[in-house]
Recover the amino acids of this structure.
């Protein structure tokens, strides 16, 4: 009803493709987070999880806090990269 002129089958295919791509993206985010965490642990560095809204990646909003933390020697990961852990 919301997409007149587009067959329902195509809408469902687009939805499935979007969910597949999202899952692929999240797999990459988690893998990169695990890589950063493993390297930080091996180097005995602190690990900081920066949590916030997606727009916080905008330098005008976050004021470079991630870069400031990195310059202080800590590793920075996002909440998306660690949200899969159950510990």
């Amino acid at each position: 009803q919301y997409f007149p002129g587009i067959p329902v089958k195509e809408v469902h295919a687009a939805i499935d493709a979007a969910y597949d791509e999202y899952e692929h993206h999240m797999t990459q985010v988690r893998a990169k987070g695990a890589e950063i965490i493993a390297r930080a642990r091996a180097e005995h560095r602190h690990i900081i999880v920066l949590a916030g809204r997606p727009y916080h990646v905008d330098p005008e909003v976050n004021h470079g806090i991630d870069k400031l933390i990195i310059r202080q020697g800590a590793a920075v990961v996002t909440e998306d990269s660690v949200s899969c852990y159950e510990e």
